[in-house]
Write a sequence for this structure.
């Protein structure tokens, strides 16, 4: 089992940057694929990015490609989401999630563990 705690959210202007962190406690962090998801008010939770257990494979939602970068540091049990060129439509609560598997999944219902979320607000 793993516990996840996100940090780094906040209020930023259009075009600004934020770096989200997700710290994991528990055993065998490197046995989990890690995903970032977001949920805006009144909308379903949506996939943002996912990274494989070693960091060798990554996938992004099309609308964040070239602006967001997911990475992980298995020595620190932490996954990151660097967000650049932020837009108002990026405003949401951002969640990290973990799944003990080899294969990627971008469907949020398939993830087993979730953090509490961190609010990201981009003003226009």
């Amino acid at each position: 089992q793993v516990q996840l705690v996100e940090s780094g959210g906040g209020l930023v202007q259009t075009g600004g940057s934020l770096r989200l962190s997700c710290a994991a406690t528990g055993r065998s962090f490197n046995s989990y694929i890690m995903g970032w998801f977001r949920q805006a008010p009144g909308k379903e939770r949506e996939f943002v990015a996912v990274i494989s257990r070693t960091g060798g494979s990554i996938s992004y939602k099309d609308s964040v490609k070239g602006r967001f970068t997911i990475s992980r540091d298995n020595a620190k049990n932490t996954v990151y989401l660097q967000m650049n060129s932020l837009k108002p439509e990026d405003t949401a609560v951002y969640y990290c999630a973990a799944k003990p598997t080899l294969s990627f999944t971008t469907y949020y219902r398939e993830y087993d563990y979730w953090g509490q979320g961190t609010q990201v607000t981009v003003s226009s």
Summary: Residues 7 and 29 are 18 Å apart (CA to CA).
